[in-house]
Amino acid sequence: MRAPYFCNTAAHSVNRRAFLGTSLGAAAALTPLGFASAAAAKTLQKSQKRVCVIYLSGGASQLETWDPKPNTDNGGPFRSIPTSVPGTHISELLPLSAKQAHRLAIVRGVNTKENSHSPGRTIMLTGRRPDPAIQYPHLGAVSAKLLGSESDTLPGHISILPNAEGASNKSDAAFLGPKFAAILLGDGKPPANLLRPKTLTEEADLQREALRKKLTDRFARSRRSAATEAYSESFDQADQIFRQADLFDVAKEPAKTSDRYGKHDFARHLLLARRLLEAGVTYVKVSHSNYDTHHENFDFHLEQMGEFDRPFTAFLDDLQDRGMLESTLVVVMAEFGRTPKINDRYGRDHWGTAWSVALAGCGIKGGAVVGKTNANGTAVTDREVNGGHLFHTYLRAVGLDPKKNFYPNDRPVPIADPAAAAIDEILA
Fold it and tell me: pTM of the prediction?
């Protein structure tokens, strides 16, 4: 039985209209692309950098993952185990990840000074604290903008949600515009009602689309705006997704591959992420929920880490085997960690003061561990960093200069927080 949570996230819904009006502004045209071709993978490796964020939604516990404190008052019931890197130990809940430690860099000194979900997410995904004067673009939008190109044939920014219904997100691209906003896939599937109804023939659909384009062009000639252009573009992109529906069908993967990842939803979503990245998507975010374990933290992490560990290591193996790991940055993050102190419900509460993030792949020094917390995990004692430092690090890892500017409305806006800098110790 799943443990109860103290915080609940609101359910969202999405339909074709909402998707076309917002999310699909992020997509570039889609054309068929093959998968699992060694030659194609090598070409992709040389020509494109990619980012995959695995987001442990709700706030995973650092003590039950990357920074265990066994045999202390805050340590909980689980042991730490050795990894493939001599001297580095992680939680026994991650036995397969422990064997991948030589590919991972672990940042144990994260202090975002934020214990609320929404601001914490903003800090981790934009590298800045929320600012009422300006909205900053998320890492996915920045990646799609700066790592993609006009010739890309796939969407640049996709977010795979754990729930059956997705949600449109109008704001994650901020001033970069709707072209770079996320396409949100609830349960890893295209939004409901996106595909052509079976009762509508292809010929009738083409005639209907031709009429729509004619009317849209007539309207745009007299009332053109950024909003009308984005809306018009989204219909074209929706048509291309319709023609590329097989991209989202992980059932087309060999049974042996599916078995390596596992049969649960997160495994399927991470396998889909690999397919998307391999096909040319610049940025994929996969959310695994719900880590907001105010109750029964240990039972729940036993379950959740069991779901996470196997597909995560299969994902890294697949990227390596396909020649993609050295060009794909993989980040395991959340909005904060969990309190070292165990509450009276055997849970851990929100804790942004001393927690951990793990990275692998492109530009990352495998086996590195930077930052340190004290004996019972209540404070950072060495190399404290925040979301701004991490954001600089992500950009540097994929070869971007975080000190450059965007110029919305001709106003210079630094790509990353100028008060922070990259974590050089984990950069290859």
Answer: 0.86
